[in-house]
Design goal:
The structure holds two protein chains of two kinds. By secondary structure, chain A is an all-alpha fold. In chain B, helix 1 packs across helix 10, helix 5 crosses helix 6 and helix 8 runs parallel beside helix 9. The chains are: A mainly alpha, B alpha/beta. Chain A: Belongs to the binding-protein-dependent transport system permease family.
Chain lengths: 309, 356
């Protein structure tokens, strides 16, 4: 077990290096530069040269890259051009709001998705199954920004039940969390359905039935755990993907999290903040994947053994 | 003495005397099972099935007396496994079932589902062909063997003690330690032993064993068979032993039911049926078993391919492969009739076989 974790962490370091390098290249290849944005269109060449030098942007690209990596291993991404304070501090300040949104969405997706998937997969081919299967396809196909706007129109403007934007109270969390959770819920439901339906065809389900268990006991006692294995993997992988959805949802609902910070920083060419945020997000995604793998091995004793021997 | 007679004697020698006749524990009476067919082959409609359904078990009748082993034998597709599944009530979705299954006089096909489920495991238990697939890979042996006891509310310590007992009875060495293992940590034979312990946990009166040795190594097969036989004797169990292997049935079954294409071909006491078959299919089965100890080691394999319920010939289903087939066999389906005390056959010309 420990050996597996250590191995995965070492691979993780490589992934982080890759992510850090990639974002370094992308922000520099993308059109626009921080100097002209900070100084505006009327700045003289002297001013531009001076700021470029003070930001270290006049140095050769490779030298910039090395010093960037050297600082990155200490989680130091330099000061934000825009806010004038350490970029990582800025990012970390926004992290709790995004974490709150992501956890709420994941909770909704897992609870609702598992319930729907079990309901549909326990009796494949029934009316319940067809309704669940059809509606999850629909949910998955709606674009997030459109769903967000629709929810605002219905629940905030027409029914006046929930606030449309901002944060602070649990009521503020509902609409963005639901928006972010909907496609995720659909994925979990569909995957659980398929997985449960497959598991229910296994011979050991017949064995469980031959003990006189009710269908419910068979489903919860024998099929659920074995069906969860692929679901856990997808939840782990998709929680990383939620980060991408969070960027859109946070902007639609003016949620003060990492996502809206990243969008602002990209438009302002605030390299430091973009790099720090990317680094952090990559780390979080990796951590989720690792946790998913560990849970996975706890669910299936066959995997657990292969890992340690 | 011909090779056929020697083989028959060898086969018959293995079986013990039939148990004294008494009120049957289970009476299978005109059992019919139809499965939905996925294809639209019009030939499937032959044989009187509902449109779009295949009749895989067609009017099967036999009794299982208490404390008796009944061997159910036939080639794959003969309907023997579906018969066992119908008895325990675990047919696939969409299956239709008819006839009567009287267990201690109560028709299982007409009891309410909750009562039927309650009988499962506690009165009628089943062991399956592939013990690795039939055991849940994510649960320990102890958990699976003890589940039925736990669910009936026994205290944890008692369940544990009973699981050790059951595993020990099934011949699992070091049961206290091995019960904490998962199925993949067991060998094939040990898994089947665990499966047997699992089936015995609810103290059933009737054990259905569906090809219990087929997936095992040859050396392990005999041991598992001996174990099943000794458990059956010790516990006074009734057992339905489903197998395609005549030798398996010959060694432990008191009575034998031979199935062909979803119907009973012949049934009766094992020694009599295998020693002096009253159906040409049974005779062909006996002749196809290689007689290891004789010098004429060449067995006579059955010619032709088995008829399937989906594609059953008219008249006697066996006639295309039967050396005795005549015109009548091609047109008239033989009814199962008594040809001697306790002996039943579905052959128009059984007397010729018996007198030969």
């Amino acid at each position: 077990m420990i050996r597996v974790v250590v191995k995965r962490l070492l691979i993780g370091v490589l992934v982080m290096w890759g992510a850090a390098s990639l974002i370094f290249v992308i922000v520099r290849v993308a059109p626009g530069d921080p100097v002209s944005i900070l100084l505006g269109p009327d700045a003289g060449q002297d001013q531009i040269d001076q700021l470029t030098a003070s930001l270290g942007l006049d140095r050769p690209m490779f030298a910039q890259y090395l010093s960037y990596l050297g600082h990155a291993v200490r989680f130091d991404f330099g000061d934000s051009y825009l806010f004038g304070r350490p970029a990582m501090a800025e990012v970390l300040e926004r992290l709790p709001a995004t974490a709150e949104l992501m956890l709420a969405s994941t909770l909704i997706a897992v609870v609702v998705g598992l319930a729907l998937g079990l309901l549909a997969g326990g009796r494949p081919g029934t009316a319940v199954d067809r309704v669940v299967s059809a509606s999850t396809i629909a949910l998955q196909s709606f674009p997030t920004f459109w769903v967000g706007i629709m929810l605002i129109l219905i629940f905030a403007l027409a029914l006046r039940l929930l606030p449309s934007a901002g944060s602070g109270t649990p009521a503020h969390l509902v609409l963005p969390a639901v928006t972010l959770a909907l496609p995720f819920t659909a994925i979990v439901a569909r995957l659980t359905r398929t997985s449960v339906a497959d598991t229910m065809r296994e011979p050991y389900i017949q064995t469980a039935r031959s003990k006189g268990l009710t269908e419910r006991q068979v489903l919860l006692g024998h099929a659920l755990r074995n069906s969860l294995i692929p679901v856990v993997t997808i939840v782990g992988l998709h929680m990383g993907g939620l980060m991408g959805g969070a960027v859109i949802v946070e902007n639609v609902f003016a949620w003060p999290g990492l996502g809206s910070l990243v969008v602002d920083s990209v438009s302002n060419r605030d390299y430091q903040v973009v790099q720090a945020a990317t680094f952090l997000i990559a780390g979080i995604v990796m951590l989720f994947n690792l946790v998913a793998d560990l849970v996975y091995s706890q669910l299936d004793p066959r995997i657990r053994l292969e890992g340690t021997s | 003495m011909t090779a056929t007679e020697m083989t028959a004697r060898m086969l018959a020698a293995g079986s013990t005397a039939p148990a004294a006749p008494s009120e049957p524990l289970l009476e299978v009476d005109g059992l019919v099972v139809e499965l939905p067919s996925t294809g639209t082959n019009p030939r499937l409609r032959a044989g009187g099935s509902r449109p779009g359904a295949v009749r895989v078990v067609d009017g099967v009748s036999f009794d299982i007396p208490p404390a008796t082993t009944v061997g159910l034998i036939g080639e794959s597709g003969s309907g023997k496994t579906m018969t066992a599944n119908a008895i325990i009530g675990l047919l696939p979705d969409g299956a239709a079932v008819g006839g009567q299954l009287r267990f201690r006089g109560e028709d299982l096909l007409r009891t309410d589902p909750a009562r039927r489920r309650g009988l499962r495991g506690h009165e009628i238990a089943m062991i399956f062909q592939d013990p690795l697939a039939a055991l849940n890979p994510t649960q320990t042996i102890a958990r699976q063997v003890g589940e039925i006891l736990r669910r009936s509310g026994r205290p944890r310590a008692e369940v544990r003690r009973r699981v050790v007992e059951l595993l020990d009875r099934a011949g699992v060495p070091e049961p206290t330690r091995r019960m904490r293992n998962f199925p993949h940590e067991f060998s094939g034979g040990m898994r089947q032993r665990a499966m047997i312990a699992l089936a015995l946990a609810g103290s059933p009166a009737l054990l259905l064993a569906d090809e219990p040795t087929t997936a095992l190594d040859v050396t392990v097969q005999a041991r598992i068979l001996r174990l099943l036989h000794s458990i059956q004797q010790d516990e006074g169990l009734a057992m339905l032993l489903v197998s395609h292997d005549l030798r398996v049935v010959a060694h432990v079954a008191h009575q034998v039911v031979v199935m062909y294409a979803g119907r009973v071909a012949e049934r009766g006491p094992t020694g009599a049926v295998l020693g002096r078959p009253a159906h040409p299919y049974t005779r062909a089965l006996v002749n196809s078993v290689p007689a290891v100890r004789t010098r004429t080691a060449l067995a006579h394999p059955l010619p032709g391919t088995p008829a399937t319920p989906a594609n059953r010939p008219a008249g006697c289903a066996f006639h295309p492969r039967c050396p005795m087939a005549r015109e009548r066999c091609r047109t008239e389906q033989p009814a199962v009739r008594s040809v001697a005390p306790d002996r039943w056959t579905a052959c128009h010309f059984a007397e010729e076989l018996l007198q030969a």
